[in-house]
Amino acid sequence: MSAATVGIPRALAYYLYFPRWRAFLNELGVNVVTSGLSNRQMLDDGVKEALAEACVPIKLYYGHVLSLKDKADYIFVPRLYCLNSQTLYCPKFLGLPDMIKHSLNHLPPVIDTMFNNRSKGFLARRTELAKSFFELGSKFTNDKLKILKAFYRSLTTEHRYLELLQSGLLPNQAITVLGGAKNTDTVYAEGSLKFAVLGYPYHLYDDFINVGVLTKLRRLGVQVVTTENLSPAVLVRQKHQYPKDMFWTFSDRAFRSALHFFQEGRVDGVIYVTAFGCGPDAMVYRMIEMESKKYPHIPFMILMIDEHSGEAGISTRLEAFTDMVRRRKKGV
Amino acid sequence: MLKVTFPRMGHSYIAFKMLMEEMGNEVIVPPRPSKKTLDLGVQHAPEFACLPFKILLGTYLETIEMGANTLVTSGGHGPCRAGLYAQVHHRIIEDLGHKVNMVCFEAPLRHPIDFLKKVNFLNSARLSYRAVYQAIKKGWHKLKALDNVEKLTHKIRPRELVAGTTSKVYHKAQLWLDKAKTYGQIDEAYNESVKALNSIPQDPDRMVLKVGMIGEIYVLLEPASNQEIEEILGNLGVEVERSMFLTGWTRDNLNKNSEDVVTCHEAAKSWIPVAIGGHGQDSVGHTVLYAQRGFDGVVQLAPFTCIPEIVSKTVLTKVSRKYDIPVLTFFLDEQTGKAGMATRLEAFVDLLKRKKLARLDTHPAVTS
């Protein structure tokens, strides 16, 4: 029996969890293919299929799934509910498999394993996740020991991935390094400026949808740090004055890291990247914006992207912001 | 002295007003959301916040202008954004330079101590816990009466002989119930209202369509936010059955295993198997149930960028095809106009009528 091929769309949760999934599936002898980098074709396909009111990342996800249609035996669209026993994911993540299954036709079987350990205790939250991985693994093999080994392997891979991120790599670089490639561009052109660029992973690391914000900043001589470069412990310890945490994992991370960068004060500017029509972000970016007023010495900018974002518009705003920060820095 | 206000959601303010007054607070009754409310909300809310967020913010700012200093609202624990409303609203209002108390009630069974603390804070008359409990119970009684009267208007309105009579009587009934202060008075007002509504001249031979209403709770319950869609539909000869009332919703939230919830989630199971926040799963479940009960159509109401309703709308396309039940969705925002909605509704009702007539022709034994 030839090995099955599982397609994983290169969008949404990919940027944080792909290494773990890939390690797990590979260890089981399953081939993993991803859709390529986002492109115009995918976006157009997605816009055509998805609901008009949905946000850009969801539309793009549709495009990625469609591009995998003929390349894989299965498509992995996990139902990410809660991975840390506290924060959830956006309702669109919770209903993602349902949206995909019920609105796209002629897809290969969709694997929609649910990952949920909300409100579970210290031990139970780990066993709940292990259970989900066993459920996923049992689709491909009956060998429990093999699944256990793969699960262990996925843990070590994730650990290594987080280490790479904390060493200053961004997810795309870290994923290629994990894949065996040489680390090509860790050496930043040691810029005179350092910006924290915040936002959801699928806005920040998809060069197509954000029209290359990170690349452009690097070209402008700016060193970039993101939420993913912070250690999880820093984020957990970060205090805020509000009665409730943000409900959604990515939002909570973005909000806490924004507070961290503001309070630490070691960055020259903070840029928040958000997408048109993003539900959770409507709350998050406003909260961050109001927080930023308390730190007038750190300039803050919100950059909104949508399916029509133009190269020129984003470039102009980034250049203006960088110039402004640079002039301020010289002035002081 | 606390000057209390709360979000206006349909007629629920009548019951809340009585409860808050009995606890010894001065109540600033939130005005019906208007153009001004929405403008205020839009001006200060984040662009992609949903419509209820903007209306609520506008209402708070309006009532603060009228002298309110305590805002009472409800919380939640996600993943719907509504759970975060209170703290974001509070922050925005503070940012605008107003000092107010924000009292945000969480689910009492999950956070009992927090609940009691907040009750104590609002208890200006220093009532005993027993008396507070009695007051809440009476408020609940009134709310039930209000909901039942509204349900009755949905039945009468499509059959009335003179257009607009039901709305007029309903308005009067609300005033009666507002004035009622004791159990006896509430019951009396309720009975009077039912009698008045039932005595509206009706046309028994009219073909009446049945349409289910699903969607997000705020835009379903507050007529000002949905351009009085129930009235428009009623005047077009459609009997509306709304999937959600405040009493029903509260009951279902306190008891996850109530029969309604279980059947609804059971119906939604093959489409959206888990709760995705807000009313996403319920919307799908209710559509299936309406289809099985032989309704002619379903209207979905959702605020623009409402996340759970986007998921359910995506799935509903297929549900609608499978169960052969037409679904019309409105994503409401500050730009929504009444005329545009009315036109779409007229077309939808025409379609339903033709469909029903065709069905009656082929199965003459079936009567409406």
Written account of the structure:
The complex is a heterodimer of chains A (332) and B (368). Chain A is an alpha/beta fold and 332 residues long. Chain A has 14 helices and 10 strands. A 4-stranded parallel sheet of chain A has the order 2-1-3-5, with helices on both faces. Chain A has a 4-stranded parallel sheet with strand order 8-7-9-10, sandwiched between helices. The radius of gyration of chain A is 20 Å and the shape is globular. Chain B is an alpha/beta fold and 368 residues long. Chain B is built from 15 helices and 8 strands. At the A-B interface, α4, α5 and α13 of A face α4 and α14 of B.
In short:
Chain A is α/β, with parallel strands linked by helices. Chain A is built from 14 helices and ten strands. By secondary structure, chain B is α/β, with parallel strands linked by helices.
> How many strand segments of chain B?
8
Q: Tell me, rounded to a whole number, the average pLDDT of chain B.
A: 91
The chain-level structural class of chain B is alpha/beta
The major pleated sheet of chain A works out as:
4 strands, parallel
Q: How large is the count of helical segments of chain A?
A: 14
What is the CA-based Rg of chain A, rounded? 20 Å
Give the low-pLDDT segments of chain B: none
Proportion of residues in extended strands of chain A: 5-15%
Taking the alpha carbons of the first and last residues of chain A, their distance comes to 69 Å
Main-sheet strand order of chain A equals 2-1-3-5
Structural class of chain A: alpha/beta
Mean pLDDT of chain A: 89
Strand content of chain B: 5-15%
What oligomeric assembly is this protein in? heterodimer
Placed side by side, the strands forming the largest sheet of chain B appear as 2-1-3-4
Shape label of chain B = globular
Protein chains sharing the most extensive interface: A-B, 39 and 45 residues
Number of helices of chain B: 15
Question: What is the H-and-E element order of chain A?
Answer: EHEHHEEHHEEHHHEHHEHHEHEH
Helix/strand order of chain B:
EHEHHEHEHHHHEHHEHHHEHEH
